[in-house]
């Protein structure tokens, strides 16, 4: 009897060849004349469904590099992107979830790590934080465990990308990091384990400048500053600049500011126009890119109920171009790193 391929074997086969689930779908459908989709691959990899012998046979007899040239098998470090602002309610989670979705839609292997004890990204993507906490499958446990980071991931959006969920237990971790020697470097070390497994890691920050946020900045390559077009959101940006300068000097010289993203923008409100003027002046003074503002839209709140990113719910939602602009900037930076061997 032919040996059955396990879900773990399938996942390893795919990742060793630098493929995401969509790339594997395309290769299988072309080779076997089938109509598989990402959801099917996800069910195979998680063990929810048996892998057909015809699929296992095709994979095990393939001799040529599949989908991506063999040179891409080098264990390249992922580009680590985060969104941070010490003010809450500025659409950090909405930004991270939708940028992760767009990067995955471009064919990249993407992991979203929910670094906020409120678990907004986890809930947004239809994952139950309490259930994952009981299963010891959240960021809290990943930071403390000696097990590989890969074991804590949960596929979301029909396998489009992976999520490392959060839960309320992460609030205690913020205090524990302060007590540990080099505690704010643990997340950075854990992400380093993912070299070769993901092209992008997206980190959703808590709404304050505590130890968890510092941990994120220590690990990140690119930082986006979302800010609601109102004065209180803008007021935290100078303090964030100071924190970034300290992180660059002492720990992470790679950290760069991708730009500033105005959110929840209403062009008819005088306050919003006033804040936009000040943001333009701030961006010019700091030589930072100011992304197109994201207007208020009901689609993003509706998408939470559906457990999907807003742009998966409606690709033409207000602000879609802004999020695509951010994803394109990250893809361009990743391409530059590959060309220069960074």
Brief characterization of the structure:
With 342 residues, the chain is α/β, with parallel strands linked by helices.
**Total count of helical runs of at least 4 residues:** 17
Number of strands: 7
How far is the first residue's CA from the last residue's CA? Answer: 47 Å
Radius of gyration: 20 Å
Strand adjacency order, main sheet: 3-4-2-5-1-6-7
Strand content: 5-15%
Mean pLDDT: 86
Global geometry? globular
Q: What class would the helix/strand composition place it in? A: alpha/beta
Annotated CATH topology of the largest domain: Rossmann fold
CATH superfamily of the largest domain: P-loop containing nucleotide triphosphate hydrolases
CATH architecture classification of the largest domain: 3-Layer(aba) Sandwich
Overall tally of structural domains: 2
Function: Involved in chromosome partition. Localize to both poles of the predivisional cell following completion of DNA replication.
Domain AAA: 82-257
Keywords: Plasmid
GO molecular function, one term: DNA binding
Can you walk through the features of this model?
- The structure is a single chain.
- This protein is of the alpha/beta class.
- It has 2 domains: 7-72, 434 Repressor (Amino-terminal Domain) (Orthogonal Bundle); 76-340, Rossmann fold, CATH 3.40.50.300.
- The chain has helices spanning 7-16, 21-32, 38-46, 53-61, 92-105, 120-124, 129-134, 139-144, 170-179, 186-192, 211-219, 231-235, 237-250, 270-286, 298-306, 310-313, 320-340; strands at 79-83, 110-114, 154-156, 161-164, 200-204, 222-228, 256-263.
- The protein has a 7-stranded mixed β-sheet with strand order 3-4-2-5-1-6-7, with helices on both faces.
- Strand 3 and strand 4 form a beta hairpin.
- It is globular, with a radius of gyration of 20 Å.
- 45% of the residues are buried.
- Residues 63-74 have low confidence and may be disordered.
- It holds the Pfam family AAA_31.
- It comes from Azospirillum baldaniorum.
- Residues 82-257 form the AAA domain.
- This is Chromosome partitioning protein ParA.
